[in-house]
Amino acid sequence: MPVAIITGASKGLGRALATALAARGWDLVLDARGAAALREAAQSVAGHGTRVEALAGDVADAGHRAALVAAAGRLGGVDLLVSNASALGSEPLVRLAELPLEGLRRALEVNVVAALGLVQEALPLLRRAPGGTVIAVSSDAAAEAYATWGGYGASKAALDQLAAVLAVEEPGLRVWAVDPGDMATDLYAAAVPGDGDPRPAPDTVVPAFLRLIEERPAGGRYAAPTLLERR
C-alpha cells in the first residue's frame, strides 16, 4: 500500500484528503496539534480499513517531524508528503502596520521552515518510493495582494518558491504547490470572523488533488478550481 503523511489532518482539507486517500487504499500518517480532534479523525479514516498512525504535535518541532517520518517508515515508506498545516500569524488577520512580528515569525516557522524540515526528514524515503510526491498547500494570497493577508500570504509565497526549487533539485520526485481556492474552514473563520459569504466545503476540492496524484503532471503551481474546470 502507498503511504502518505498529511499534516493538519484533524479537520478541513487535511481530513478530507485523508478520507479520500484511505478510500483508495492508502496507509496514512496524520498530524495535528489537537490530540482529541486528531484521534477522532483517525478513527473515522480507519473505518476504510487502512492503517493509520495519528501523532499529535507541532510540525515546528523537529522531534515531532522525525516521529512522523519514522511512523511512515514503519508502514513501508513515504510515497506522498502533504504539507497542509498552517498558521495565520494573527487571528483575526490585521493590516501589516499592526501585524505582531512574533505572529509573522510563527507563520513563517509553521508554513515554511517546518514544511522544508519535514521534506528534508522524509527525502531519503521519498527518493526510494516509485513516484515520490510532495504537495505544498498554498493559497491565492501567495500571488494576490489582499489587505490583511500580508503575513500569511508572504509565508505561502515563500512556500511556493521552496516547492518550485525542490522540483528542480529533485527531478525524480513530483513537487506541486496547490492553491485549493476558497473553502469553509476553521482557519478561514479564524482569519475573517463574521464573514457570512458562503464557501465550498473542503471535500469539494479534494478531486483536484486526486487528479494531480493520479495524472502526475510536471512539478509546478496549480490551482484546484482550474483543475476541476478541466474535468
Would you mind describing this structure in some detail?
This protein has a single domain (3-229), classed as NAD(P)-binding Rossmann-like Domain (Rossmann fold, 3-Layer(aba) Sandwich), CATH 3.40.50.720. Helix content is 47%, strand content 15%. The protein has helices spanning 12-23, 35-46, 62-75, 101-128, 150-169, 186-191, 206-215, 224-229, and strands at residues 3-6, 27-32, 52-56, 80-83, 133-137, 174-179, 220-223. Helix 1 runs parallel beside helix 2, helix 3 (62-75) runs parallel beside helix 4 and helix 4 packs parallel to helix 5 (150-169). It is globular. The two termini are 27 Å apart. One of its GO terms (molecular function) is oxidoreductase activity. Pfam families: adh_short. Belongs to the short-chain dehydrogenases/reductases (SDR) family.
